[in-house]
Records
---
Amino acid sequence: MNNIKLDFTIKDLENISGIKAHTIRIWEKRYNLLEPKRSETNIRFYSNEDLQKLLNIVLLNNNDIKISKISKMSDEELILQTRALAFETSLNDESINALKLSMFQFDKRLFNNVYEKLLEEKTFQEIFQEVFIPFLNDVGLLWQTDTLKPAHEHFISNLIVQKILINTEKLQFDISESSKTYVLFLPENEIHEIGLLYLNYELVLRGAHTIYLGQSLPLNNLDYFLESDNEICFITSLTIKPYDDKIEDYFKEIDVMIRNSGKTFVAIGQKVNQVKHLDLSPQIHLHNTITDLLKVI
């Protein structure tokens, strides 16, 4: 738990809540909604409780409850009203805000209730594309601004992964007979697999046969499939690894491996733009996003 961020600047609060720092200050002065502390060097900072309270306030305010009314609620009433509203609403923006609240409070119950409510109106595919992807994009921005700590990201990512796995398992019995097998894996030292797991779900949804090998896989672990007589398509996703200065070497190794194998290889991610100038085998296909790949499958 040492990685949990406990103190936040007003800029952190702005990044997380979407409420401008100027507005937050007005809410403080006019309604006493937040009470920031000051460091020994007189710098204002906010606690985790302040952040949670602000997210609660934003959720209520976005649903037409006036700040003046919110300011009269006790802390307990504020929490109860927010939880009830989060359970009732199915709007994407409010759901995303509720997911942020779940993440920073480590509230699994809130996450599951928001998810179950979304399921009443949306398919899992729609939930992932319309709610989870925008939410994960917000998480990425919070990483960039150093607002988020690993414990928060790990908590929420694991909950989303669980939903992908559950929904993929439900489809396994519907897989059609297919001569083509998709082998999905992440490069060595790469651990960010939500995108690849969702792609696996999309492939299974289409009736494809997939083999998911998971995180951090050295290329030589693919030898078994290279020697197979079956029609094989390898798929990997690049987010962090391999390092930028080694990515060309990585793809040259893939090229040697694939060129005379009769297999195909697909790489997804913005990092593939760094190797599009290479003279790679026509069996190697590069796509910037999962959506781009799904259009041609």
---
Amino acid sequence: MQVHTKRPTVTVTLPGPTLGVVGGGQLGRMLAEAAAPLGVEVVVLDPTPDCPAATVARDQVEGDFDDPQSVRDLAARVDALTFEIELADPDLLEEVQDEYDVPVHPSPDTLRTIQDKLVQKRTLGDADISIPEFHRVDDADDLRAAVEEFGSVMLKARTGGYDGRGNVPVTSLDEVEEALEYIGHAPAMAERFVDFVREVSVIGVKGRDEVRAFPLGENVHEEEILRETVVPARTSDAVTERARDVAHDVLEQLDGRGVYGIELFEAPDGEILVNEIAPRPHNSGHWTIEGALTSQFEQHARAVLGWPLGATDLRAPTVSANVLGDVESAQPAELHGVDGVLAADGVSLHWYGKREVRPLRKMGHITAVGDPDGLAGDGSVDPSTAVDDLLESARDHVDSLTFDR
């Protein structure tokens, strides 16, 4: 999916502008790493002292994501604003956009739509984009009605959930009260449980005058947390094309430049349903750092600044795998087994710089890149076999790493 009206006419001089990022976690860190070679400096806003992005960004504004003074301090120092976390306040971003004449991308209105899962789903449904059936849930009676109509459902808190947090399956009426307690009785939605073949995702990019997409990735989850992304996805050409078409339809509904992570379900009949959207670089796009001609992070910086986008072609079959905390309780982060991973050909390690490891916390990721001949299409290497081998290799390398003392 590459849509061009015409090559944008943009005057770029170096050193480049300063980009402000609301959020200084691992996404902000990798964004700053990708921006530096472009001559772009990054200033992040984050409440955590010496946040993960602080070591690679030009500076950190220490404050809450939605603190008015902190956001204004950030806006006063930069030429453009973006965010790497949906906890940013869209109303506040709109205010500083006008007050400081600083463009915000993706648009605050897009953030407002996406950060509420119910609003997000209604927006997609109104645009005739395929989604799972859902109901609004304000109380136990609403959830019981959804279970009675749909059978098994996934209860999702409307705001604030990530990495499976705020999501809980409900398979019977007996589980209603416990499920509501699990999400803190927050406003929610109940989605018909989808018996999908696989979850896939498209990392799409909206630029000034062009739209591009990276190759389709296949996402492997365990305990509602993304473990690996396999590229190319092990599915048919028809499903791949359908997924890219749906992603393009989604991007048409969203305003503002930048990278969007679009999570999709492949149904048994080949239909593609939209699961969720992230208006920022996404975990399922981390493979692009080594596996694509331009990473999702460089693309986001280019797009937000209105610069020409880079190529999204796949270099070779690629698997990214998350390094998660394997401890039973919080402790200082010290990763063991690193030398073995560094010694492996075609394997790259990314450390997120978090000082504390907690159970299943994302602490880094590895990327395993295979033989480019696996993409040749001449029958010499089967891409499915290539990524199967890479997936097994990536899992072995992740298993060799431990925080447990």
---
Amino acid sequence: MDFNGIQPDLVTLNILLNCFCQLGQLNFAFSVLAIILKLGYQPDTITMTTLMKGMCVSGHIKKALDFHDDVISKGFQLDQISYGILIDGLCKNGETTAALQLLRKIELLRVKPNEVMYNTVIHSLCKDKLLSDAFLLYSEMIVKKISPDVVTYTNLIFGFCVVGQFKEAVGLLNEMLLKNLSPNVFTFNTLIGALSKEGETRKVRNVLAVMIKQGVKPDVVTYTSLIDGYFLVNEVNMAKYVFNTFAQRGVIPEVNSYSVMINGLCKNKMVDEAVNLFKEMYLKNISPHIVTYNSLIDGLCKSGRISDVWDLLDEMHDRGQPPNVITYNSILDALFKNHQVDKAIELLAKIKDQGIQIDLYTYTVFVDGLCKNGRIKDALEIYQDLLIKGYQFNVTMYTVMIDGLCKEGLFDEALSLKSKMEDNGCNPNCITYTTLIHALSKNGMNEKAVKLHREMIARGLSYE
């Protein structure tokens, strides 16, 4: 345009500025603003809104707020779209309180809040489990005659599900229906997914019936959630039935559907069926993700089929899907249970060489494996090393070590460790007490066992 002597107008420059903002190139975006001013144009609301959006997308929230204050101080009038973008940026960056404050402030700037702004803040509050604040905003919408829409209700249903208040979530769904608001597939899936994770399959079927009655077609997410729920309550045949009738329901299974099936089958010791499903994924050109691999590897490990696991590990590397700490935790546990201690030690060294962040759970599995295989000295070395490195142990790690010491007949050391864990602010649980009481009773130390029993009862704990 320059070479042809065509001067770009404000619309053209706003488009260019928007392109740079979308690419996260804020320096170039502000250069375009400079060109706008140099050519004598007056930047408009679109210009300023686009720049604020660019800052939000790039994570520069404070800059966006400062820019907003600067723009307002110079007399620019921003609109609902401007504030919707700014509030959305704040919420996406975890600045819910600041978003709420801005929502309160904009009316003073002669901009009327709309349902989009309220929905954005309500969703963020629900994610933060601040349901009372979210519901307060919902009530405020009604007072201000801003009609809550499907998005508002879906957000609130999600929030109540997050905190386990399913009765209230179902109540909101019924309220939507009474107001002739049509819940969409996402609304239903939110509720069905949450109820399924709680094993509430009867309630899920009721919601599914309402969904179909409302003319909303269940999708692959709906049925995958239902399968997950059936597995959770050990209704394996129902889970298999739903999966096997996907085609009849006009639904195409995807990677998550297969992952849920493989995980459920493995947990029910139906590993051969899980392997067959895994092979079926390749025939249908569905690439397994890390969860799929981890579920199958865990199932194979628990079935003692470690030789198959090594092949899967090679395949993961070949497919550019490297194993993570969860993968290795399953394998380490299996190696110890099969008394392959040296291989477990080699694998831990390999994990460290790969730069994988080892968590406390991994070390707990490792220490437990060493203890159960009579390698208490090695377990104590790792335990002491972790102490030196500043690890904060949980009740599981302490209990594992106490169990190991008891198995070696080191009862005084085990009791001493129990005292240390209490000194460190970690209270023994029923498993800790049961481990000690059983070991002491078995070795004729009845007086100490009875004392621990009374202490356990006094703490309100019971035997598992």
